[in-house]
User: What shape does this take?
Amino acid sequence: MLSIKNLHAGVEEKEILKGLNLEVKPGEVHAIMGPNGAGKSSLASVLSGRPNYEVTQGSVTLDGKDLLDMSPEDRAREGVFLAFQYPIEIPGVSNINFLKTALNEIRTYKGLEPLSAKEFLALSKEKQKLVEFDAKLVNRSLNEGFSGGEKKRNEIFQLAMLEPKLSILDETDSGLDIDALRIVSRGVNKLRSDKNAFIIITHYQRLLDYIVPDFVHVLSDGKIVKTGDKNLALELEEKGYDWIREEAIH
Amino acid sequence: MIMINQLETPLYESIAAKFEIASLQSSSEALQALRREAFNIFKTLGFPSIRNEEWKYTNILPFLKEDYELDVIPQELTPEEFGKTAALVAHHLEELQQSLKGEQKGAYRLVTVNGKINAELSVLPAPELLRILPFAQAEQEPAFLANFGKIATLKDNALVALNTALYNDGLYIEAPKGSVLDKPLHLVNVLLAGGPVFVQPRHLVVIQPNASVEIIETTISDDAGHALFVNGVTEIAVGENAHFHHYDIQTGRKGMRFVQRVEATQQKHSNYSNYTFTLPGTDLVRNNLVLHLNAPELESHLYGLYLSADRQLVDNHTEVHHKYPHGESNQLYKGVLLDQSKAVFNGKIYVYQDAQKTNAFQQSNNILFSEKASVNAKPQLEIFADDVKCSHGTTIGQINKDALFYLQTRGIGEQRARNMMVNAFAFDVTEKVKIPALRTYLEKLIAAKMDNA
Ligand SMILES: Nc1ncnc2c1ncn2[C@@H]1O[C@H](COP(=O)(O)OP(=O)(O)OP(=O)(O)O)[C@@H](O)[C@H]1O
Ligand SMILES: [Mg+2]
Assistant: This one.
């Protein structure tokens, strides 16, 4: 599904991703861990098309299509979804109208009829339930005045509504209380299928107890330096990152 | 000094000639004296140049060079002119109706052509609800005598003086005591120009005690493209416990230059709310909105939204005079600037010594969509009372790129995302529009302009 080859990218003159490779197949869940400043969010930014990032080398394809050539909106319409580490507040844009616009633009792109107001409402109810998202928040301005945890849950609500092929969750677990973590994980597990895939960026092994990954990667200094299964996360929790860095050097 | 240059312009020559005729037009000696006084003021001041502090950022002199014709009020419309006007009005209403669909309770309609009432195209309320007269028939009305020429400030105001000296006919609107107009009055100002034209519309609106009125003003013109300079003056008297919601929708075309002074007096427990929306099209818009709060315990709301494009210049000058205690005024102006357009906001709040417990609020927010667009925003507060709450704030920023990106990552196209953000920005003002159909119409106008941006 997603194929990243020798990706070099940076901001202004600074190189952040330094030859990153990753293959993600349908149905898989990949966890990415790594020290602060390693480039995890930068990878998410490059995949979703954030304007200030410049790709200097390498390629990224989604089902064979060149992702790097597309506008952010077209990437989304092709099925890429990023749950932001820091979701932005947009006062005056209603959460629900925004989602309706988004959903219908994606549907139009795919040649589908836009949903009627009634159909949309039904879908929204269903997904709110799935991720236990407070109905009161749905009608507010987008993320405005939401608590940190509410913002994260809103990201997952949007994910549930838009049903992307590839979801990238950037530290969605940070800032969630234990109940919310369980709810969000349960939601993600229900959304998992053999047709979609997840990249989960996290600092905490705990999340991976709930969402069990097929692969765990360590991203350090702009590269994936180690890949393992879910047990790697346990090992990292115990030993930290230094031993891998040393391994990588030697 | 300034006059030397101006005297040489063709406009100035025709102004002098016109005054001879205009001074004969008013029936009463008092009105003739007022015209003379006004003309003398204009002659002394001349058109304002940028050396005048009030006009520092808005240079109207380049817009006065055309060979304008001054006297353009047709006595009777020719069949051809009537046909043209009817078509313009029909088209305009159709545009409005599109958005009125479903929720339209309707509106009364008053059509004027270059300032003159056209009864045939109008749908007027019963006179018990609202009296509408041309000045020629209103000059002996008590409320006319009490207010005309007494609200708009002549001193230091060359353009008000010019209008006062030369206005042809005007529109007198009076809401009788206790009347509540059941539907808004839509005032359609039609401007016809067979060549470059300088028009000076004049309105007097008197809202008697306990009356309540909503007026929506729109302006339309033929698209012949001739230069059209509008120098308008509207005087408003809002009586005790009276309510006046005044909507001014400023659209137009290239070649149109629009300067107006709206000056109002308010009495106890009254509410005057002004909503000024300026859209791209006209070359120049200068609004002077001046409120005299002549009694305690009243409220005023001034909402402005401007979306400017091309080389347009949109200038809003406001003045609120708090003269008595317990007054509340609230100003919110928001601007979205595209291309090489310029905006000016100058908001003055005066709190007089006796005006204790005044609440005066002012906010001006702007977003620049282009590096070549610019804003000059200046709040001016002069406070002579000690127990007051006054606040003001000005912001000038760019569109939030992170927010734009966020919307795009959800599949929303860039253009659409921009529109959503502009609507969100404008929402504080558009939500204040009390007439749902009008709000929809305005939102559509904004969206249409942003789509072409
Ligand atoms: N706009 C920017 N300008 C300059 N440097 C940047 C910019 N954005 C990110 N960086 C730098 O790139 C590096 C990688 O940042 P990134 O946010 O991708 O790290 P991360 O792995 O997500 O870290 P964390 O675990 O703390 O979230 C950091 O050194 C950061 O300072
Ligand atoms: Mg990060």
In short: Residues 79-100 of chain B form the longest helix (22 residues).
